[in-house]
Amino acid sequence: MDSGGGFGLLFGLVVLAGVVGTLWKIGTARDMARSAGLDEDRAATMAVLTDDGLEELASLLARGVISQEEHDRARADVLRSI
Q1: Cα angle 50, 76, 80; round to 5
Q2: 60 CB-near residues (< 8 Å, 6+ apart)
Q3: pLDDT number for residue 51
Q4: What are the residue boundaries of the structural domains of the chain, listed by start?
Q5: Where does residue 67 fall: left (phi above 0), alpha (psi -120 to 50 degrees), or beta otherwise?
Q6: N or C: where does the chain have the smaller number of CB atoms within 10 Å of the terminal CB?
Q7: What are the distances in angstroms from CA 16 to CA 2, 30, 48, 70?
Q8: For 38, left (φ over 0), alpha (ψ -120 to 50), or beta?
Q9: pLDDT tens per residue, range 12-52
């Protein structure tokens, strides 16, 4: 059996799971916002950015890819956009 094909299948499933999970988070955030009388678009944006954007920035900082100053500036931009 070709192990490359198995890896490709597993990689594809992981990507698919990530997409489905993100869509579920967006849908849930929109439903909760609608129930609370809040802006659905802002809730969806916040669900995606706060989970992915801020965590990604923290990861980049921890790996030394960006400086503390770059992290702080980008974090402020993310929070301003919410």
Answers
A1: 70
A2: 66, 71
A3: 58
A4: 20-81
A5: beta
A6: N
A7: 22, 21, 17, 31
A8: beta
A9: 887 787 778 778 878 888 888 888 888 888 877 777 766 56
